[in-house]
Amino acid sequence: MIDMKKYTVGQCLLSGLLLCGCLTGAYSQQTKSLFNVRKQQAENAPARAEAKSIVPSTDFKKTTITRDFISEGVAVADLNKDGRMDIVAGYYWFEAPNWTRHQMAPSRVFDPRKEYSESFLNLGMDVNQDGWDDVVIIDFPGKPAFWFENPKNKPGDWQKHIIADSVGIANESPGFVDIDGDGRLDILCGDKAKKQIVWLKPPTKPGDTNWKRYALSKENVAGTEIFSHGIGYGDVDKDGIKDVVIREGWFKGTADNQSGSWVFHPADLGEPCSHMQLLDVNGDGKNDVVSASAHALGVWWHEQVADEQGGINFKTHLMSTTTAQTHSSIMADLNGDGRADYITGKRFLAHHGRDPGDSDAPILMWFEFTPDKEPYYTEHVIDNDSGAGLNIVAQDMNGDRMPDLVIANKNGVFLLENKIKK
Ligand SMILES: [Ca+2]
Ligand SMILES: [Ca+2]
Ligand SMILES: [Ca+2]
Ligand SMILES: [Ca+2]
């Protein structure tokens, strides 16, 4: 294990600069901001989470599916149609209830300290609507996404289909959200080539295998570099139409979600982050944004406020410095009070141990919101030896109607069954 305590802040800054120097021009826009994050941490805040002992809650029952690093994305679906939810991690799926491992296509176990896998985010859905759930995989940033077609319990490799004419997926936290309200999840992301905020729509007719690309923003906008960090979908201005947020501002949604006409409004939504969640944190009727640092330290809520001209801007409030590298988040009502909670966790060894705190204990946590009571949230640590990958699943796995959590990262694949008492 690399002990980051041995390194001084200066060494961390130096290694950060060296890392930035090695990356391509596509990364240059973010180099400055990432550097600023590290500089600010060194000057004003702890560069890493404090070494306090974190006692995991007894509210979740953990099952280790595997300790192998095979994917940083995860999904659930009943792939063999036996009525039980199975777990997907990259090119592998684990059959409930004993989590027997199956391979969809040739792959291998990756070295968590040296390599990335070939699977960054996963989704289970019946793409071709033949009654069998398929598996969607977002690959390394900038590569096209693809899906594996379920062979309906027949042996052999699953057929791989590239999504939407090989659109290169930009932004590191693409969203699985229903953009057009047809009840099927779409992919919200950037288009690497056109630097445009787009959505990729799965086929609508049974038997069809082709996804379509539709533009929301104009070309050459912020948030669309392959390594851009942070994107979300929700109604910022409460006009009844959902908008797209990135950390540099928001694109105002219109009824036309296909022609790339959504106008950008600059606003300050803080540091590079993972999936951005919209909710009214403080109960003042305006939607705020909750985000977490993708590669540094911090969970924040960004309070929606009016700027001097009466426009929309945000004031950032720090919620947590419990764990760094919080490179994914999801909303789900974990405690059954009817209000969605925020779940995030450490992307263990995000940059293979080179970033402050990325080899610390892999913590998974949730935040319960209390809009009528300051500071409007309560933090709960779920576990200190799982963490999160690049997406988190919150879905009922054991039939008790409470959402459970499933994660996959460089620490393995884990199921955390929700035992919170209502
Ligand atoms: Ca099953
Ligand atoms: Ca299918
Ligand atoms: Ca709106
Ligand atoms: Ca608010």
What does the model show?
The chain is mainly β and about 425 residues long. The model is unreliable at about 1-45 (pLDDT under 50). The two termini are about 40 Å apart. α1 (about 10-20) runs antiparallel to α2 (about 30-45). The protein is about 5% helix and about 35% strand. The chain is globular, with a radius of gyration of 20 Å. The chain has helices at about 10-20, 30-45, and strands at about 60-65, 75, 85-90, 90-95, 100-105, 120-125, 135-140, 145-150, 160, 170-175, 185-190, 195-200, 210-215, 230-235, 245, 250, 260-265, 275-280, 290, 295-305, 310-325, 330, 340-345, 365-370, 375-385, 395, 405-410, 410-420. The strands form six sheets. Strands 10-11-12-13-17-16-15-14 form an eight-stranded mixed beta sheet, with no helix packed on it. A four-stranded antiparallel beta sheet has the order 1-28-27-26, with no helix packed on it. The longest helix is centred in the N-terminal third of the chain and has 17 residues, at about 30-45. One calcium ion binds near residues 281 and 288. Keywords: Signal. InterPro entries: FG-GAP (IPR013517), Integrin_alpha_N (IPR028994). It holds the Pfam family FG-GAP_3.
